[in-house]
Amino acid sequence: MNGILWGIAPQTRSVPAGGYTVSFGDFPGYLTPPPQTVTLAAGETKAVTGVYTEIESESPPIYIPSITPEENATITVENVMITEMTISVKENVENVRITVQQLTDKPAEIAIGAPGVVYRYLNIVAENITDADIDVVLINFKVEKSWIILNYIDIATIALNRYDPLTGEWTSLPTTYLSEDDTYAYFSAVSPGLSVFGISGQALQPDFTVSVSPTSGSEVQGGSTTTTVSVLSIYGFTDTVSLSASGLPSGATASFSPASGTPSFTSTLTISTASTTPAGTYTITITGTGGGVTHSTTYTLTVKATPVIMWSNPADITYGTALSGTQLNASANVAGSLVYSPAAGTVLSAGSNTLSVTFTPTDTTDYTMATDSVTITVLQATPVITWATPASITYGTALSGTQLNASANVAGSLVYSPAAGTVLSAGSNTLSVTFTPTDTENYNTATDNVTLTVVAAPDFTMSVAPASGSVVQGGSVTTTVSLSPTGGFADTVSLSVSGLPSGATASFSPASGTPSFTSALTISTASTTPAGTYTITITGTGGGITHSITYTLTVTAPPAPFIVPLALGIVIFVLAIGIVMWLWMTRWRA
């Protein structure tokens, strides 16, 4: 104080009454407060405080040997936002030392800050040069673009402000925008001297924007459509914005979700129409209001009528039938085109199928596209079995592919009844087949049958009538053997007998023939042929076939001589005696 070093503050000292100048010592990294003048009365106590302002960064000292009016001095500045200075002087100056200090705040002794939003304060310390020496100083400086964006600064208002310690006021210096890169915007300002400077700019007015996406849409009468309304904050707008819509056609309503919010936010606008809302195109105004600010945008709404499609469910069709105008026969109440799916010519699978149609109206301004669908039932097709009546076969011939030769018009399997290998009885027989298609979805099972005649094999039958006879030893008996053909038998049959008793012979008349024929069989016995009953086998042989039948022969002995007359005489004699006795008895009683 008054040139006397007191030491490190705080200090308390008693001094005589009077006037004093208090100076503050330098402290590295901080801006030294200016000296303060204090007047003390006897017994009065005063506190003197100096506020140090932190130096954020500092340029290396820059030495300039001399500056003349004829030769300006241009210096490059490092570590701070001032990048270059060009000094013009009125009089020669020598041994100039320049240091630029970038401060974290305005110096404490400056009561009022620089106008606007301050970016940086800078203190230019000059030695061996004063404002009286300076004609003009051209100061180039830079500002971070991130600061400009974050603080919504209007770049056109960025300026270098100089503090005048004599008036205690800030002066905004003429400032010119030079250029910018990815990080900084560059400026140049003209100053009448060197002192404390403040780089500042004016913040833009907080505001918001209203936009809509999509900007247009269409809906049918009685339908609804949506769009997204975006409300974006600019320059830090934070008030609530309410949304509304106007210009709706009759019967239409609009709703927002949400109906208000703090930007930035989005809202879904739903516009619903009634069935009576007139078709046409309407301009809907969407308005956002908040913070005393109103902004609007527009949305184009097109209301369209829906064409009426007439289309009945078509009649059932059988698989394999291609779609045609018989099924695809929809119509509409207005002009336009119909596109079907599936298209004409398509063969549908069996079962229930959906047919669809899309109608595009000729008048796309007032009518929307329409769709409709119907159901058609496709019945399973019945496979066609081809099976000709087979030629007759002879009994004994087993069934084979010659007879079981059916075929179908689609892939599948055939099962026959009776099966191959079966030998049928002679006569008319029914052959059946069951066809199972491989494609069981679209084809059903089919059956068919044919008649096969089985012809009996060539043969003959034999019979004898009478089938039995009696003969006395030494006598003969005759019977008739009959032969009949079957199956077209035409060979000669020879007859023979076996089983004759001893002494007996047999003869046929004729002994052979082609059936049909009859032959008289005569069996002759000898007197020595034993009496008894015999089974005679009659055999016919011909055409490789042999058949036999039997004949029963009874041989009896002849009666003995006189035995009958004697017996008869005895009988007569007995009867005569009986009669005589009866007569005698009758008389005697009388």
Describe this structure in words.
There is one protein chain. This protein is mostly beta strands. The protein folds into five domains: about 55-200, Chondroitinase Ac, Chain A, domain 3, CATH 2.60.220; about 205-305, Immunoglobulins (Immunoglobulin-like, Sandwich); about 310-380; about 385-455; about 460-555, Immunoglobulins (Immunoglobulin-like), CATH 2.60.40. Helix content is about 5%, strand content about 50%. Strands 2, 4, 5, 8, 9, 11, 12 and 15 form an eight-stranded antiparallel beta sheet that branches. Strand 13 and strand 14 (about 185-190) form a beta hairpin.
* Rg, nearest Å: 71 Å
Residue share in helix: under 10%
How many DSSP helices? 2
- Note the gap between the termini: 225 Å
CATH C-level name of the largest domain: Mainly Beta
Overall mean confidence score, pLDDT: 91
Beta strands, count: 45
Shape: rod-shaped
Total domain modules:
5
Strand content: over 45%
Q: Which class of secondary structure composition applies to the elements? A: mainly beta
| CATH architecture level-2 label of the largest domain | Sandwich
What is the makeup of the main sheet?
A: 8 strands, antiparallel
Q: Remind me, CATH topology of the largest domain?
A: Chondroitinase Ac, Chain A, domain 3
Low-confidence stretches at least 5 residues in length (pLDDT < 50)?
Answer: none
